[in-house]
Specification:
The protein is α/β, with parallel strands linked by helices and 289 residues long. 43% of the residues lie in helices and 17% in strands. Strands 1-2-3-4-5-6-7-8 form an eight-stranded parallel β-barrel, surrounded by seven helices. The protein has a two-stranded antiparallel ribbon with strand order 9-10. Strand 5, helix 5 and strand 6 form a beta-alpha-beta unit. It is globular and about 65 Å long. It starts with 10 loop residues before the first strand and ends with a helix.
Length: 289
């Protein structure tokens, strides 16, 4: 388990990089990840200014323990290449890029980030129909590129698929499963898409709980009011932490030294459960900090 894999990413809030007040507020919110957006939330005539503001915000810092990600415009747009060059020079934790369709896009974005610091990772939006049958091939690029994360773009997927994005997200359930499975197979972060209900927090919470059930690390957000319920859903519960502590203690007992399988509370517990327990405790420790 790496430090990156144990980093809490329960909540990831999109903020328009063109909004100075939003950038200032982001430094005070109890969110795990801040996504400074140059794409969907910025009008064409504001793209250049938004880029400069995002780069300045990254350079100024002040985000504390929050992860800072910048979402660029695509390389197939008039702004994409300039976005990538400027963001690479500023060195955020990650760069998020839109509408990828296959391995060739990962290679192109990885090349565009060649000048970025080594710790700057590449995250990609999973929001096109074309990428869905290629998810495992795309995720496998993590072995020899900066690729480190999938972010679901369910609104764009709904548009392309002509599907309805309703409570329960029935048409998208296979996509959610496939994306999580591909990400887990290759060690990627994977974040659920946004919920458009920012006034109905009960509806939001239900969708966040569904994302947790599917195995997502956290959820992307469109409004600060969604942060608290999102953090609550994706934080390890008291019962989970109690289980984790007892698993770690049981495997550490002298009588279980070197064993791969032990009994705990009448159930068989394996080393894979020990890994899960350690990860839960590490995340809880970072949340507490």
């Amino acid at each position: 388990m790496t430090a990156a894999s144990a980093r809490p990413r329960r909540s990831a809030l999109y903020l328009p990089a063109s909004n100075a007040k939003a950038l200032a507020k982001a430094r005070t919110l109890p969110v795990d990840t801040v996504i400074l957006d140059l794409e969907d939330s910025v009008a064409p005539d504001g793209k250049v200014e938004a880029r400069a503001m995002a780069v300045a915000a990254v350079g100024e810092g002040g985000f504390g323990r929050r992860e800072v990600v910048v979402r660029a415009n695509g390389l197939n747009t008039p702004w994409g290449a300039h976005d990538l060059a400027a963001i690479a020079a500023s060195g955020p934790d990650a760069v998020l890029v839109p509408k990828i369709e296959g391995v060739e896009d990962i290679r192109a974005y990885n090349a565009a980030l060649a000048a970025a610091p080594a710790q700057t990772r590449l995250w990609v939006m999973i929001e096109t129909c074309a990428v869905l049958p290629r998810l495992h091939d795309v995720a496998a690029c993590a072995a020899d590129s900066r690729l480190a994360g999938f972010v679901l773009g369910t609104n764009d997927l709904a548009k392309e698929m002509r599907a309805q994005l309703l409570p329960g997200r029935v048409p998208f359930q296979p996509v959610l499963t496939m994306a999580v499975a591909a990400a887990r197979a290759h060690g990627l972060v994977v974040l659920d898409g946004v919920c458009n209900e920012f006034r109905d927090l009960a509806a939001f919470t239900a969708e966040a709980q569904q994302g947790l059930l599917f195995g997502f690390d956290g959820k992307t957000l469109i409004h600060p009011d969604q942060i608290e319920p999102c953090n609550a859903v994706f934080s390890p519960s008291a019962a989970e932490l109690d289980w984790a502590e007892r698993v770690v203690a049981a495997f550490a007992a002298p009588e279980h030294a070197g064993k791969g399988v032990i009994k705990l509370d009448g159930k068989m517990v394996e080393l894979l459960h020990l890994d899960q327990a350690r990860r839960l405790l590490a995340i809880a420790e970072q949340i507490a900090a």
